[in-house]
From TrEMBL, chains A, B:
<dbReference type="GO" id="GO:0003677">
    <property type="term" value="F:DNA binding"/>
</dbReference>
<dbReference type="InterPro" id="IPR001387">
    <property type="entry name" value="Cro/C1-type_HTH"/>
</dbReference>
<dbReference type="GO" id="GO:0003700">
    <property type="term" value="F:DNA-binding transcription factor activity"/>
</dbReference>
<protein>
    <submittedName>
        <fullName>Helix-turn-helix transcriptional regulator</fullName>
    </submittedName>
</protein>
<feature type="domain" description="HTH cro/C1-type">
    <location>
        <begin position="11"/>
        <end position="65"/>
    </location>
</feature>
<dbReference type="Pfam" id="PF01381">
    <property type="entry name" value="HTH_3"/>
</dbReference>
<dbReference type="GO" id="GO:0005829">
    <property type="term" value="C:cytosol"/>
</dbReference>
<dbReference type="InterPro" id="IPR010982">
    <property type="entry name" value="Lambda_DNA-bd_dom_sf"/>
</dbReference>
<keyword id="KW-0238">DNA-binding</keyword>
<dbReference type="InterPro" id="IPR050807">
    <property type="entry name" value="TransReg_Diox_bact_type"/>
</dbReference>
Amino acid sequence: MSIKVKVGQRIRELRNELGISQEALANKAEIDRTYVTDVENGRRNISIENLEKLIDALQVQLKDFFDAPNFIK
Amino acid sequence: MSIKVKVGQRIRELRNELGISQEALANKAEIDRTYVTDVENGRRNISIENLEKLIDALQVQLKDFFDAPNFIK
DNA sequence: TTGTAGACTCTTGTCGACC
DNA sequence: AGGTCGACAAGAGTCTACA
């Protein structure tokens, strides 16, 4: 499975834990809502700057974002 | 300090620990050497796919790459 | 609320060359 | 070995609109 898909799944997982909509997350992170949809569905190769914004908005540390079974090799 | 700069510093740190050149790292990760230079110097907003390639080539886990003082908030 | 599509701008990422 | 430049194709990221 590609890293894009794994990142998308992890974002969706954390967003659901927070109980907020894609639009609310996009607003918090100050990025486009339709772009969040694409990222969650593994269709975009997100840059580190936008990934950091999303992870901040999800209120986790970068290292904890990647501390999930999917990311371990 | 921007995430681009932090990522660049961390890549350089880990590359130096491995004792390999930018060119050797670029070859291992299958990305362009001049691009590695720019990334290490914090001038490029790298995508998750290329960042994963570099981190693989540096032989660390994603979560360990981001488990450094610079990245903790 | 989420997903998709189209059109758009600007940057990523590659490559060759030179220092 | 590392840094920079210039040119380029490809893709990131935005926005409007509609289902």
